[in-house]
Amino acid sequence: MRVLLVAPPGAGKGTQGTLIAAHFDIPHIATGDLLREHVARQTELGRAVQEHLDRGELVPDDIVLNMVRDAFVEAKAAGGGYVLDGIPRNMAQARATYGVARDLDLPANVALYLKADDEELLRRLLARAKLQRRSDDNEETIRRRLELYHEVTHPIVSWYGQRGILVSVDAMRPAEQVGREILTALEVLRPMVDLVPEEARRPIDLTSLAAAFGETTSTARMSD
Ligand code: AP5
Asked: How far is the CA of 6 from the centre of ligand 1 (A)?
């Protein structure tokens, strides 16, 4: 299974990426974690990107694309599956990531979009700030990360819809519930992803499933 996650900060890319990786026994490639490791080790790359991370700005595309190229090569050697978390973040990264993956015969089977509203995301990240020390978990920087998400990342969601690999999930519910729904959807899709070509597939929208089954969630302000 080859899954990429597109979602705003705090929607659960790391949480659900870890779950999917464990479930399918595939590598979890998280660009934010890789960058923070460099910062923690104060490598040359870490020193070059630290300010970007601290301010909630995107690091230059070539840096993250090089990281992902290396991680894809390792994923291929490990069996060919992966969960990609944190990239792509803009249209240029989406096209470049697709190109690299296609060259290695590893294009994503599923683009998982975790949908949640900004107020909830701010609440989650401020709550995390009280427990963990992340230089970008303060209100001003969180707002900047959300702004950038809406400006340059969210537009790529529709590109995956056009490609037929988009699965949208309501991420406003408790993490366990979101995770269960994701694993169920991926298990259903697993037998067909390699058999049904992208152009013959249609986007799958699970975001109104909860309401259909009588669950109440505050989805009123979620962006489309
Ligand atoms: P990155 O590490 O990717 O951060 P992010 O996108 O801001 O996302 P977060 O890690 O904050 O949230 P998440 O969606 O992973 O949610 P999580 O599961 O952690 O990137 C950091 C920085 O690196 C970027 O700002 C940029 O500078 C740089 N960068 C990275 N990739 C880049 C790229 N491709 N190009 C350029 N720059 C790049 O959950 C968050 C919290 O919410 C946790 O406390 C969790 O327990 C909780 N939570 C999760 N799910 C739920 C739930 N359903 N209900 C309640 N709480 C929940």
From this structure: 10
